[in-house]
Amino acid sequence: MQEKLEDQISAFLDEELPDEECQLLVRRLTRDDQLRATFGRYALVGAILRREPGIRPQPELVSRVSDAIAGEDAHELSPAAAGLSKKWLRPVAGGAIAATVALLALLSLRPTPVDERALVDTNEPLEAAVIVPPPAELRPVPAPAGFANYLFSHGDYTGSVNQLTHFVVDDDDDEAQMDIENE
Amino acid sequence: MKSRIRLLCGFGLLALLSLAAHGQDEPRQWLEEMNRAVARLNYKGVYLHIHSAKVEAMRIVHRSHEGEVTERLIRLDGPRREIIRTQDEVTCVLPDKRQVIVERRKGKGALFSILPAYSEGIDRYYEFRMLDEGRILGYTTKVIAVHPKDEYRYGYRLWLDEKTAMPLKSQLRDGDGNVVEQILFAQIEMPEHIGEEEVRPNIPEEFKWFRADPRHRANEADQGGGWQATSMPTGFALSDSKLTVMAGAETPVEHLVYSDGVASVSVFVEMAGAKKGLKRGLRRVGSSHAFSTIVEGHQVTAIGEVPSVTVQLIGRSVGPRTLDARR
Fold first, then answer.
1. Class of domain B213-326 (CATH, top level)
2. ipTM score here?
3. Which of the residues A21, A44, A162, A173 would you substitute to probe the B interface, choosing the one with the greatest number of B C-beta atoms within 10 Å?
4. Which residue from B82, B107, B275 is facing A146, i.e. has the nearest CB?
């Protein structure tokens, strides 16, 4: 059961979970602390695997991953077997996939609990940990959208986590996220 | 860990114990304690933002050091986004757009604060109740319901850690009790100290920065006053008004804030000629509604975490103040 739920979380983060299952998962997330913690951990791992600045594993974990890569277990694991999200794999190339699978394998090991605090180390200099190739061609930078600015300003003014979160997650698809009823 | 929390919040616990004697005042006083807690505590963790069937995971770090508060929000799923709020500035990092937007802070409220200050009049528009205790992530919580008394506002249901008053779960609800949007912590720590490096933005040099033009800053002292809303739900009143220049923009925007003490609606007014693609009508972004219209060559937008009827009522009534009214 727990494994199925974890698969659903992985599919949800990949935006591949059917709508009816999404609704069930969301309802379960609101009342199941353990499942919510798992969801948060999966999202955190995804950020680590995408090498998001400010979110990266502590050196101890990196060392454990390296050890795992050196061993046989990681090589025997397919990404799917490790519960690895396809989306998480996209920005990872070459030998990094082995490290990624190993990381997920480490995080997926049961019954060893994973302490989320061990995952995140924000003390390291950022650039040393970020390995993201620059885009071949820089797109022109548009001026910030007016409506997004309004949402941002109002959320900042009121301290609304809801609105700031919406600004953060909806800004990449500004108009598509809105229901517009013309006068 | 738990002993540190107890030590950190010792005075808060004593204060809260005394609150129980106040009967019906208890929920409001818990909310005031929550507002102090979200500003004063050091905390970090992961929260889930749930609306409809969507879930977003965000990492949050809140550092309070010698009276200075710095907050950092990082999106964990989807394209990377990051917001850093200091006392004076809020910085938004958009790596996929290679942009950094820096705005001057317009309010001083900490994240998660909802009740700026108690006023007697709030009882006319909201009912405050204590519900049965709950448990979130192993913490015993006090559960508070804030129920709106008319269709112009949303209510809240909040689960506050009984030792620190930190909100561990927060639901925005409509007048029928339906959950519109909710935030739930998936993991949280409340350490005694958080290092400055945990809230420091790290931004590659090649990113393009949008910062409000300093030439306009002198004008920001201008409190505005050129525009006003003349219709609004009972209990709402103008709580702030200023001219501001948003990052990346050339022309100033008048920003008016109307509030009933819990809910707030911002009205933005700017010259329509300065904008491409003028907007008219109603929009919804999560629990927020926005209503836009054009008035005398200006784009007017009312936005807030309120039902659509409220932004429409306020937005439709916005117009230039008369000379008599300005005096």
1. alpha beta
2. 0.80
3. A162
4. B275
